[in-house]
Amino acid sequence: MEHKIINKVALSGIININLETFYPKGERVLFDIKERLFEGLILREKDFRAFIKNEDWSAYQDKYVALICSEDAIVPTWAYMLLATHLTPFVKKVVFGDLETLETVLYHELLNKLPIHEYKDARIVIKGCGDLPVPNAAYVEITRLLRPVAKSIMYGEACSMVPLYKQPKLPKQSK
Q: Domain limits at 59?
């Protein structure tokens, strides 16, 4: 008697979503404005504008850039805005914040373009643990987007799923 191996996961109709597949390719750069501070305390407009004028912004071509100041210093808002105006023609994206903020913004934009209606009444497993830096905010965002349409949402792998949400059953209507 021959025994067939049956892949019950494949037959279950569960849809696997791996957020790593959405990871935008490209170099990430942290631009720390602290390098442009006078005595590590304040940003001097004249010096900063000279730096802006003389910098080769093409060095940031097709990169993702996060703008921060890691020092507790006086940095006017316009300084970040000025950096953004010069970076924008070259970069794929520029944000204010650290590299995690950058990843969060990238994922937020990508996930909000998903055709969520295609997951109506679906049983979904959102894959966890991978090789790329997917921020926790991306997992929260995909859950927020799927909850109104999915039949169920789970986290992990098919062999060890953590249930997160199950659509409530509607009461049977009497005739």
A: 28-91
